Amino acid sequence: MNIPFFKKESKETKEEKELKKSRKELAKDIKKKGETAKVAIRNIRRDANDKAKDMKKNGEMTEDELKASEKLIQDLTDKYIKEIETITAAKEKEIMTV
Predict the structure, then answer these.
(1) Does the pTM exceed 0.70?
(2) Burial class of residue 52, CB neighbours in 10 A (0-12, 13-18, 19+)
(3) Is the CB of residue 82 less than 8 Å from the CB of residue 88?
């Protein structure tokens, strides 16, 4: 007796597989752009800290002002890096949701 075997799993069509692949590539690209943005922010932090140190060196800023500036710069850096991470995570989730 020959009884056909039926799977409960649905088979993905070729188009669905391509769409899934495209979504993964797009999510990967978004993650890469997020990392690039974080590096840019860190470079801005470095430049701002260097400028503050130069101002201190030239007598335009006191030691206390330098420390306050460095703290503010770090707080802003942390804020914007967290924002980038939140945005990229949400966008990746949006893209991967069918």
Answers:
(1) yes
(2) buried
(3) no
